[in-house]
Amino acid sequence: MSNSLKKMTERILELLERLSKESNKGVPIIVEGQNDIDTLHKLGVEGEVISAKTFGRSFLNVLGEIEKMGKQEVIILMDFDRRGREWTKRLITHLERMRIRPNSFFWRELRGLVGHEVKDIEGLATYIDTLKKKIENKYEID
What we know:
The protein is α/β, with parallel strands linked by helices. The protein has a single domain, classed as Dna Topoisomerase Vi A Subunit, Chain: A, domain 2, CATH 3.40.1360.10. The chain contains six helices and four strands. A four-stranded parallel beta sheet has the order 2-1-3-4, with helices on both faces. Strand 1, helix 2 and strand 2 form a beta-alpha-beta unit. Helix 1 runs antiparallel to helix 5. The two termini are 12 Å apart.
């Protein structure tokens, strides 16, 4: 069991490292709220992160902000719950119409790895810490 936990933890950390590299290249990341931004920073992902659902923003406000940035690509990293899935689909559809490439790779990959255990981006840091503790405890017992 710990071997699969270790592999999953490594895969999550690898994805976050790749996400950080893309963000450092100037590709903005869209998340739902401020806590998601704080979590990404805690996990070492810097760069431009846009909060889609804070300060009473409407969907159109978010699209307008993205358009003003003049970027050709944005990374969508909404929550993994039903509402996050709906926002992701809507963002993809509208961004494609605006000729902006919506990158949902990281969202799909992370959701596939943690989707049943973690419902939102802000829960990622705690989840990773829990996985690391489980792995450490397993190796201490062996």
